[in-house]
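Cont'd.
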Amino acid sequence: MNSPRQVVEKIIFGDYVLTMDETRPNISDGAVAIDQGRIVAVGCAHDVRGKFTSNTEYSGTDTVVLPGLVNGHTHAAMTLLRGYSDDIPLMEWLNEHINPIEAAVVSEEFVRVGTQLACWEMIRGGTTTFVDMYFFHEVAASVVDEIGIRGLISATVVDQPRNDAVDIDDQWTQANEFIQKWTSKNQHTTVRPVLGGHAIYTLNQAQLIQLRELALEYELPVHIHLAESQFESNYSKTTYGNTPINFLASIDFFDSHVIAAHVIWSTAQEIDILAHYNVGVIHNPTSNTKIASGIAPVAAYLDAGVTVGLGTDGAATNNDLDMWEEMRLAAYLQKVTKMDPTVLPAKVVLELATSKGAEAIGLGSEIGTLREGMRADVIQVDLKNAHQLPMYDVESHLVYATHASDVKRTFVDGQCLYDDGDYLTFDPKSVRRQVTLVSNTIRNCQKNLY
Amino acid sequence: MNSPRQVVEKIIFGDYVLTMDETRPNISDGAVAIDQGRIVAVGCAHDVRGKFTSNTEYSGTDTVVLPGLVNGHTHAAMTLLRGYSDDIPLMEWLNEHINPIEAAVVSEEFVRVGTQLACWEMIRGGTTTFVDMYFFHEVAASVVDEIGIRGLISATVVDQPRNDAVDIDDQWTQANEFIQKWTSKNQHTTVRPVLGGHAIYTLNQAQLIQLRELALEYELPVHIHLAESQFESNYSKTTYGNTPINFLASIDFFDSHVIAAHVIWSTAQEIDILAHYNVGVIHNPTSNTKIASGIAPVAAYLDAGVTVGLGTDGAATNNDLDMWEEMRLAAYLQKVTKMDPTVLPAKVVLELATSKGAEAIGLGSEIGTLREGMRADVIQVDLKNAHQLPMYDVESHLVYATHASDVKRTFVDGQCLYDDGDYLTFDPKSVRRQVTLVSNTIRNCQKNLY
C-alpha cells in the first residue's frame, strides 16, 4: 500500500528547476514543495507529486524556478533619488547634489516611501533578499517586516551630521537598540539586523575598532563600502599609511564577518587577504561603471577563492535595482577586461546572484540554493516572451536574455509576494501616490538649492 | 473666425515628447500628428489639438514619445541561435558551433521564422529600423515588407560556401536582382535594399572594389563588419600590408556610404579617416564585450566628429535585440574606460540610438527625429512602472532606467505595429509555434554534430 501523501502549503512547478546546489543543479520538469516557510522537497515533478500534495500549486509551464536573487548592497530609500543627478563627476555629484538634497529631504517619511518603492521594484524583478545601508534604519526595517521581503538592514554609523541622530553617540545607541530589538524578533520577521560602517574615510580608526567589537559581540556582519575609489585609496594611504584593505586587516577588522561593497581597488596581496578572512565582496558593476569608479577584478577574486556576490548599489547611481542587469554587466566587464569570453560563464554569474551572494552576506546556510531545509526564497521566471525564444541552455538564458519583467512569481519564506501581476503584501497604487508626493517635495527643494 | 481643423490619421500624445531635433528637443505635454506615413506636426498638445483632429488619438498619460530606435547592425534570423553557444572562445564558437549549425539548418524557412522572431522582439522593444546582414536576404525582405518594420536588408557577398547561392557569381547576380526589385518598390514598402560585404577577411581586394563600384552605381550604402577583432587587424596587415580602415581607404572603399559595424580597433589617424569620409560607425557594445572583441573608442569617435549609431549585433552573440541595453552599456563602457562619468551623457546616448543612428545608416533626412515631414517612426514609452519612479530627467530616465518592456506603442511609417500588448501586423502565437518547430530541428542537428 502506498503511504499517504504529505499535505504541504504550496508546490511550485517549473519546466526547469535550477537549484544552484552542486549535487543536483538542473532538474527538467521539476518542483519545489514548501511548508512553514521552508523547502521540504526539490525534485522531479513526478517524484514530488508522489510524496506531497497541496491546495496551492503553481503551474510550471514555460517557466524556470530558481532561488530568489540576493542584492548584496543597496541604499533602498535612495530610489526616490533615481536619476536625480547623472553624468556628473563623483565629488560634484556627492557634494553639490546628493548631500544637499539628502540634508533637505531625508526623513522618516522619505525612508518609508523610498524603501517601499525599492521593495516593490525588487520583488517585481525577483530579488528576495537585499542588504541595505541608509538613515532611519528602524523605518526601513519596519517596511521590510510589513512587506515580507528579506532585508539585512544595517544600523550604520558615520561620523557626519545626519537627520536621524543628534551625534555619533546617539548613532551607537540606536545601533545597539536596533540590533537587540530585531534580533529578538528573529523567528517572526524577514528583517535581519546587521552593523553598518559607512567607509574608512567617514569613520576614524577608533570608530572602526568599536564597530568590529560590536560585530563580534553580537556575532553579526559589518556592512561597509570598501576600496571603491582612487580617492579612498589616497585618503587611506595619507591617513592610515596603508591601502584600505591592508589597513582594515591591520586593525583586525576582518575578525568580524565583513560585507564589503565595491572593492575595486585591491592589490594581489590584498586579494589574498580577502580570501583568507572570507570577506564577502559585493560587486556593483553598474554603479562602478556609471560613476566611473573602476572595474573590480572579479575574475581574480574568484580565482583566489574570494566569496563574491552582486549588488545594485542605490538607484541614485544605477539607476535601477535590477539584478539581471548586474549579472550581465558583471560577465561582460570581466570578459572584455581579460579579453577572454570564457571568463565568468553564465553558471558562475548565476552563483554570484544566488548561492555565492548568500554566502557573501552570511546567509549561505539559509538561502541561495533550493535544498531541503532551506528557507523558501524562490522565484518563478517566464520563458515565453519574444526575447527568450528559443532556448538551448537555461543558465545562459537567465544571464544573457532574461529581464526583471520576465519574473512571474516571487516567494520569500514561502510567502508569495508577487503573483503574475499582483502584489500580495502591499498596494503599489498607494506607494505610487506617496512617491509622487515625496518626489514633488524633492523637486521643490531642488529648485531652492540652486 | 477660426480655420477648421485638419483631419489627420492619428495623433500620439505624451507627457513628454523628445523630438531629438536640436531646435526643440523636449516638449512637455506634447503631441505628434501623423498623416499618410509622415509627421505633419510636433508640438504642445494644446497647439496640435488646435490645428488637427483625428479619430485615432493615443493618450499620453504617463508616457514619453520619441523617435523609434535604430538598430544599426544585426543578423535577424540568427535570433533562432540565441544562446546556442555562449562563453566560448571566438574562433571555436565560429568554427565548431555557429558555422556547422548554420551549414546544417539555414534555409528559407529558417530565415523566414528567424526574421519574424527578430521583428517581434524589436517591435516589442521600440526598434523601428534595423540594418540586417544574413543569407536568403530576399526572404528577410519579404518578412519585413509583410510586418511593416523598417529594414535595411543587405544583399551580402561573402567568398565562402553558403546555402543560398551556388557560387560567388550567383551572389553578385542575386545582389543586383534584389536591389533592382526592392528599389523599384521604394514608395510602397518599408524594405530598403543595401549592399553587404561580410568583411575584409572573407572578401578579396577585387571583390571589395566590385562592391564599392556597385554601391556607387546604385547610390546605396555598403554594410560591412570592420575592425572588429585583433584577428582581423593581423589578417589585414599580413594580407593587405595595412590595418583594416587604412586598407579600405586605400582602395577608395569609403567613396560609397559605408555602414561599418563594430570598428573597435582603430588608430587616431584612422579615426580621422572615419570622420573625413563620413563613415557610419555602428557600435555594438554587448556583442563586443560578451565575445571579448574589445571596447570601441566611441568617445574619441564622437570627439573627432565621426557619425556613430548603435546596434545589437545578432542574438547569437548578444543574446537579445534590446537597444535600451545597448544604450546603457555604451554609456557605462566609455565612462569607466575614460574614468570620467561625464563622458557619453544620456542625451548623447539617446542620439546614437535615434538621430545619429539614422545618419549613420544614411537615413538621417527621413527618420531619427520627430519633425514635420519626417517619416512617422515613433514610439510611446510607459513611465509608470516601479523601476521608473520617480522621474526628474526624461533623457536620463530613458537611458538609465527604461527597459524594452516599458515600450507601449510602436509605429513605423505611421502604422501602429504594437499597441499595448497587441501586435497588429503578425500573429506572435503563430511565430512562436514555428520557432518551436525550427528550434527542435536545430537541437536535433546539434546532437548529430557532436
